[in-house]
Each structure stands twice: as structure tokens, then as C-alpha cells.
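Good morning C.,

I know you're traveling, so I'll keep this short. The sequence:
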Amino acid sequence: MVVALSLMVLVGMAIVAPAGADEMVMTQGVPLPKREGSPFIASGLSSASAQFVAVDDYQTEEGDAARLAIHRISDGVLVRTIANPSPGGTTQPRLDGQSIIQLSESTYQGGIDTLTTTDVDSGSAAILSFDAGGNVVGYGPGWVLTCVAEGSTDNCPLRLRTAAGVNTLVGVVVNYSKKISTADGDETRAVVSTPSGDQWAINTITGSAHQLAYPEARTVAGGRAFWATDEFVDGEHRNRLHWRNLDGTDDGSVLVNAPSYEYDFRAFGDRVALLRVPEDGDFGHQELRPVNLTTGVLEPRVAHSITGLRSLADGKVVLALSDTSSGRIAVVGDDDQPPRTVFTRQPIDWKVDKLKLSGGQLMSTWQEARDADQELYFTTAQSPQPWSTTGPLGITGTVDHKAVDKAQYSGGVVLTDASGSGSSDDRTYKLAWPGGTRTLKSAFGAPALGNGGTLIGRNVDAGGWVKSIEVQSTESAEVKASLPGNRAFALDRTWIWSFSADGTILNGMDTASSAIRQHAFPQACSGRRLQVVDTSALVTCDDTAAFVLDLTTTSGSWAVPLVSGDLAVRLGGGYVTWVHYVSSGDRSVPVVKVASLLPGHETRTYGPARGLSLQPGPTLAPDDAGLPTMAYVDSRHQARLLDLSWTGSVAPQVALARVSPAVSAKPNANATFTFAGGDNESQVTYSVAYRTHGPSGFSAWVEPDAWSKLAGPSVTRKVASGTTVCFRVRAQDDFGRSSAWSASNCSTSPLDDRRLSAYGTVTRDSSASAMESTLSVMRKKGASLVRRGQRFHGVYVYAWRGPNEGSVKVYANTTYLGTISLKSSRSGYVRVLVKSSTARYADVRLVSSSIYRARIDGIALMP
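The C-alpha cells, ready to paste straight into the viewer:
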């Protein structure tokens, strides 16, 4: 039997893989909703000059080099995007004036020996090559300062090399571990510190040097050097801010109204401002407050919610701000104007970490879990909604970080680590399911939650660092079995599977029926792992070989066609999937292979997928309920969904489900719900559920014990007057595989005319042909019949038609719904439906709208 259960309409199917093909066209799965990154994460301010600002570009493919996006400060326009091969490292590109400057190696591991200066606007580049033997202590557009240490010390003489051909010692000895400072946009000056603490200015065009008359300064602004010293005043440590002109004249100082641990002074106009944590903020969202050089008072802040900052040579400051929904880059000057937005940052897509799919419900964790939560997030495969921390049936995902890292999910059950930090020898775990929770202990590792969430296996300390596996009912904690801890095992719904002592027999036991199954597995297999889904088992051996067993038989297996390097083999309902690597230019690209378990083992390829890095590595998530869908994480760390109905699922199905009658001719009649499975069904039973609809709306679904494990083909239930009963059915086999619930089929019972209140000229007559031998006759225009306080979407009116009949208007309270004309050349009994545009809770009113009579037998209300 082949079942095509599709949870959603998916576009784009993969190309069928020819045997042995490595390079091929592939398609991606349908993207699941994304989560947008916060402004803190999106700050990424890398460098800036008076003309341009460079920010990190986070939207990269896995394996791609990081990138920097360069925007013009005057108008925010993106000028160009460049590679950033060493984020935060020596070879990271840096803006300086009109140029991008970057150090690099001309040969792999040969040492840094190249400086590239690129004009931002034109892209034209000049290359300066130099000896790789020295240490680079400073560089700027078209120049580099290097030194070679003398003997065993860190001290070395400086040498200047320029694109103009200068190659000269500058006569200053420095400590090569200390970097120099440069003024942005000023190619003529670099400041270095000698081992004795003297400051020297070096002309980076000529190589000439002269000593400066001030100590090592943190900040240079407006032609002055600024530095701070600690001073104990009135029982507390304060900052004394000093300054001196760069030519050595005009000293000054002021005691700053701030504690000494706040010392991050930044150039701002021709003075400095203090970057500090406000009383209402945190380290990642700071404020900038100018210092009054006369009084030392911190002036009102000129910017807040700062996540990054760069001072410019023109006295302005470029800011990364988190004061908007996605963050922005702004510039502010010492001119009493608020920060001007250069450009608004686009939200980044948070990266999926772990992903699980069970019964059409998805659970995920995220690599950037910084939103004060460390939470699990959920969505559905069918018509996915934005990720939410409220799981299926009200399960909450709020847990601590350790719980997120170890979380498991299946069948609506969530397993989390409730121990927090501490030893892993005997930890406490929490189970949560719709309507209940409990905790359990597990030694030497986390418990294993079975497919469907019915069973859980916890590790029990058997003494001497030996463990056994105790299999429990998830909800009741009833012990179902005890297994040796050194054997591979799997839990699938109510079934427990494990290998015999010699590893040659796979044994299965159904905890619900005590049924036993066995399958021979004579292959030599070390480091084995076991997965079971429905009637298939997957045995992996040292992660290098994998075999699929058909558990409806007692022997035989199919070797999954893995090649060297393939990994992450997973079993789904009717298919097996794994990560494979294909060649693309000079790199390998991870892709998802999916092979059907039907004869022929049709195989398709999807991707690219994540899998170039060890952490978090590739992520494949087959639906453990056996549905023909799976999720995976793509090369941009986003979740995608695949429709795998082409693999030929072998789960049972419901081929027929119908109810009779849909609308009864009289009150309190029986409704019969008939159902049947697909072709060639064997050992399949059915479960039927119902719910009622009345003035209070729909009730919850009810699954009577007597309607579980039915052989078929029907059930019958009385439908009370004025209500609707809806039925649904699903099929299951003795392996615990289930179809989805069928669509709802409903039967409605009418209200007799005597259940309607009469107003105006209405007579109550008798008729043997009426539903309860009575009818109500509205004899004058404006007469009415009313049923109060009903919830409905449509009204069936039971009446007689004929040449002497009139017409009836139908209202919900005072809202007109429609008119029924009963005048006809032929006489007879009719049932006419009048629909409302929306479901309503209202009084149902039938009003005679003509001078002729209207004979009414009753109404039926449709949900």
C-alpha cells in the first residue's frame, strides 16, 4: 500500500539522482518561518572613516568568508561589499580616509608581507610588498611600519616602507607587542611608544620622527592628547582628565564627575565624551556623555542604546544603535543635534541550532539564544506559523540553557534537563505533556524519549560504572522492561527493540499487546546504533555503514549506499536520509540524500545543507511519526521542509469516511458514520472520535473506549434535537502506525416548530406528514417564529411550498440573512438553507414577508 499524506503544498521536487552522480542540480525544501535577530547581535560596527562606515554582513552561506558592507556616511548608500577573511584579526580590512587597507600573505603560512590599499569608490588597488620576517606594528594607506626584534628582547627598531618607494629606519626603538595609533584620514602621522614610555610622532610619508611632550594617550581630539589618572577624592576614586596640545604646549586637567572605573573617553569634536553604562541600561547598550572641560561635569547624553562606536578624524562619532526594531548606524557631532541615521540595519536571520519533527510539529533551538529565554520554539509543518514558545496543546518551552542544549521532543512530549549545572552522573530530567509533568533521574547521560512520546528509557546505575536501561511509561512511570546498558535499543510508540546478547537477533516487544517480533541480523557490526520507525529499523555501524531491516519479515537487510565521508544517517517513515558531499568548484558542498525503502530505492538529492562545520554540524529531522515529511537545516542555517510522499509511505490510511444523514428529517434521530481503509489493508483497526455543537459552540473531541480498535465499518450515535454531531476516524496497525485523522463529517438534528416561540398571527396546527405531527402557520405579514440564543453559520428551514404559500425572511437578531420564497406551482415539502457570512451567536428569527400563509415545520442550525 502506498500512501501520499501531504501536510502542506510544497513546491519544487528534487532531481532523481543517477547512480554514482556527484555533481548535480538539486532543489531546496520549502523554507520554514525565520526568526529575526536583535539589534545587539546586529550591531557589527567594524571600522569607520570620515567618509565611510564598514559593518559586518551576517547573511552568508556556511563556509563562505565573512563579509563587510561599506556604506557612505553622507547618504547611507551601500558602496561595496568585501570579504573579511579574519574577523577581528590582523588581516581584517579597515577603513582609513578614502581607502580600505588590508594586510595579507602572498603565500600560505609565509607570513604577512603585503599591504593592499583600495579606493572605496573606484575599487582601484595599490599593493605594497615587504619582507615577511618583521613584525607589523602599524599600517595605513600606502605605508607600513615593521620591526625585527633584537636578540631575546621584544624591542626592535622601526622601519617605514611606503608605496612611494621609501624604505628607511626611522630611528626609534619600540616594543613590537605594542601597536601604534594613527589619526583617521591623516597619512602623515603615527604615534608610537618606546619601552621607556616616551611618545614619538612619525611622518609616514618621509619617515622623520620627533618626540612628543606628553605620556601615552588614549585619545587625540582637536589637536590635543587626552589621558586620565586615578585620584582619590572625598573617599572615592575619581578620574582626573589631562590634556596637552600635540606640540607640547598648553597643559590642562579637570576632575571628572565619574568614578575611576569609568574611563572609556572617546574623541568628540575638539574634546572627549565618556562612553558609559547608564543607570537604566547594560553593558551592551551604553550612552555617550560629553565632558565639560571647565567643570568636569558630564553633560546630557548625546546618544544612548549604543552597541558600537568609532570616533572620526573630523570630530564626529559613528554609532551602532539599538534604539529601533532592527538597529541603525548613525553619526553624531558636538553640535547639539541628535544622532543622524546613516542607514537602518536589516534584521538578521537567527541561525537554527537543533531541530526535531514529530507528528507534523516542529521544535527548534537557536544558536543566538540571547533573548533572556533559553527557550524551545515550536511551529507546525502544515501552514507554518511564526515560531512560538508555546508548543502543541499548550506545552511551554521555557527552560534553562542546559535544558535547551539537551531537550528532546516527540509526540507532544518535551524532555528537558532540570538539574542545571553540576555532575552528569545522576541528573534530574523533566517530562511535560498536555495535561501533566513529572521528573525522573538518569545516570551517565540523558534518558531517551521514544518516538511518539509513549515510552522513555532512563539510565540506571547498576554499580561499578555499569548501567542498565529501564524503560518506563512516559506519563505513569510504570516500568515496562529492563535492558542491558551495553546494547543498542530503540523505542517506537509502544514497541521496545533491542539486540540479543550476541547481536545477531533484533527483538521487538509491544508493551500494549505483548506481541513479539524478531529479525535476524548476522552482519558483523561494531559501534552499532539503532533507530526504528514503523516497520523499519536502521542499524549503523561505526558511522561508516548502515543497514535497513524490514520488520514485517524475519530476515534480510538493505545496505544504504554510503560512500566515504557520508554522515548523519537517519530513518523516516518509508525512507532513509543522510548527508553527502558533492564537488562544487574548489569546495565540497553538503547535500541531503533521501532514498525510498520501496523496491528500487529511488534516491533524490536536496540542498545545499548545513554540514561544513563540526558544530552545530548537519541537522536532519525526519518525522518520527512516520509521516512522509522531513526537515533539515540549509547552508544559511535556516530550517526547510521536504514533501517526501514520492518515497511511498507504508502507514495505514483512511480511504472512506462519511456520515448519514447529513441533516436529519426529524429530531433525535440516529446518525451512522461509515469508514474504510485503503486497498490491501491488513491487521488495521480504527479509532473514531466525535464532538457536539450546540448553543455553546463545539465541545472537545471525545474518543470513547468502545470506539477504539474497531474493525469497522461504522458507528451509530443519536443526535439530540437542535445539535450537530461531528465524527472523525483514523487507522492504525499493530506496529502503532497511525494515519492522520480524517476530515470531520457532521450530522445535524432539527428543532421542531413547537421549539420556536410564536409572535403575531401564528396558529399551531397538526399534520401527520410533519416531523412530529405538528406545524406552525404564520398567517399574516410580520408574524414570526423565534429561537433564542443560538450559535450557527446557516439555517435550514423545513416548510411546505405551493401556489397559496407566501415567503419568509430569515434574520440573526436584526441582521437580514435571506428570503425564502415558498410560492410554487407544485405543492410539496422542502428544506431550504440560508447561510450567514460568518458564524454568529444570535436569535434566529423567521418573519412572514407576504400576505400569504407560511407553513413551517422546524429549523436545523448548521455550525
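Safe travels,
E.
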